[in-house]
Design brief:
With 223 residues, the chain is an alpha/beta fold. It has helices spanning 12-24, 35-45, 61-69, 85-93, 106-118, 154-165, 173-181, 189-202, and strands spanning 4-8, 28-32, 49-53, 76-81, 98-102, 128-131, 134-137, 142-145, 148-150, 170-172, 210-213, 217-220. The structure holds calcium ion.
């Protein structure tokens, strides 16, 4: 059965462009031109993935996302323009799975959709997370690369744990700082630069695992 993608976007040109790309890749496509209609269509169509523009005429895209997340876990990729850096981060904090910055290519769009639909397994449901050469054992609280144990400090471990918990997804600076150092540290991005560097060095032999999303956060690559 074809996966269903719902586009919530007020610009006709952009909807048309997305529809062509999505249909070409075998998706069935639904459309909504504002937030209210978008929320209704999600109920009716039960899409497999949602493309959500943040600049909608009737309500903020982030508000649409917040309402949606009260009852649904459907993967959502938000569409933003370059100047929307702040909104992009708000959207990720509100439960978006990924974002695309306009203009983007169809190839990039489809790759992002495949990734969010693949939905990295919720690592915490399994006692051991394995991704390529990296193994993380949540019970023993150990990390190994190619079967060899790597010693992480408690802070490094909890930073990696937070990335692994959301493997494949962008975790914002704020989310990471809050999870590892607590809410009072939300603005201390320099902690992240230092500790991410340490973790990267220690996991170096596993290859490039942690990707920087400039101005937004970090992502654990899942292959
Ligand atoms: Ca718009």
């Amino acid at each position: 059965m074809s996966p269903v993608a719902l586009i919530i976007e007020d610009e006709i040109q952009m909807r048309r462009l997305l529809r062509v790309g999505l249909e070409g890749a075998g998706y069935k496509v639904g459309e909504a031109s504002d937030g209210q209609q978008g929320l209704q269509e999600i109920v009716y169509q039960r899409p497999d993935v949602v493309l959500l523009d943040l600049g909608l005429p009737d309500m903020d895209g982030v508000e649409v996302l917040k309402r949606l997340r009260e009852w649904s876990h459907v993967p959502v990729v938000v569409l933003t323009v370059r100047e929307d850096e702040h909104d992009k981060v708000r959207a990720l904090d509100a439960g978006a799975d990924d974002y695309l910055t306009k203009p983007f290519s169809t190839a990039e769009l489809l790759a992002r959709l495949r990734a969010v639909q693949r939905r990295a397994p919720e690592a915490q449901e399994e006692p051991v997370f394995v991704c390529g050469d990296l193994t993380m054992d949540f019970v023993a609280r150990t990390v190994a690369v190619k079967g060899r144990e790597v010693h992480l400090t408690a802070t490094e471990y909890s930073l990696l744990h937070e990335l692994v918990r959301h493997a494949g997804k962008v975790v914002t600076h704020k989310q990471l700082l809050r999870a590892v150092w607590g809410p009072q540290a939300e603005t201390q991005s320099q902690y992240l630069r230092v500790y991410i560097t340490h973790v990267r060095q220690k996991l170096e032999s596993a290859g490039r695992l942690i990707r920087n999303e400039p101005g937004v956060g970090y992502r654990l690559l899942t292959g």
